[in-house]
Amino acid sequence: MNSTSLPGTAPALPAIRIPAQFFSWLFHPLLVGLYMALYLIYLDPEHFTGLSISAKTQILFIYLINSVFFPLLALLLCKGLGFVHSLYLKTQKERIILYAISMIFFFWTFYVFKNKAGVPEIMAQMSLGTFLAVIMDFIANIFFKISMHATGAGGLVGLFTVMLFLSPAAVNLPLVVAVFLAGLICTSRLIVSDHQIPDIVFGLMAGFAGQWIAAWYFG
Q1: Which of 22, 28, 123, 166 has the most CB atoms in a 10 Å sphere around its CB?
Q2: Cross-strand pairs, 5
Q3: How far apart are CA 63 and CA 188, in angstroms?
Q4: What is the DSSP string of 123-140?
């Protein structure tokens, strides 16, 4: 199947393919987690009330270093050392090392947030959900190439549905935006990658389930 086409269709036109590629980069799985952290730290009306700007910045910096910078650095090192042939990680085999490395850093992020005084519990909960989703992806990757982008999208929707049911803050609009973005991300991946619909569906389920399992753990 052509990597720039939907399953069973002709290749997508550049007018469709180029925006789909842009959205795939804009909503890279690591960046989706960062967007979730940014919302919780700076826009959430409940959990970070009363924290100073410097305290919020420190929390964001911890997440950025552990869950974005180090995984990206590990990917670049793997590429430089020849462990992977492409930064796009097009094969299941190439994804094994990155999944393993990401699990270490995501768990460390969760551990730091869980044990650091002054950090709202929601940050540890969100980080645990991300860690659990990566574990599910790692296991699924043994059998098929589950979509990491869809997992990030599922985590985004999962976080806001958790907050919708368990938080007194109004998150109706953020949830609608999250669902819209999840559809945009998944559609983009079907257009510009070789993922099939089951890869997308199971990715969404993994991300969504990770956030709810984390909420149950903290509940």
Answers
A1: 123
A2: 11
A3: 26
A4: HHHHHHHHHHHHHHHHHH
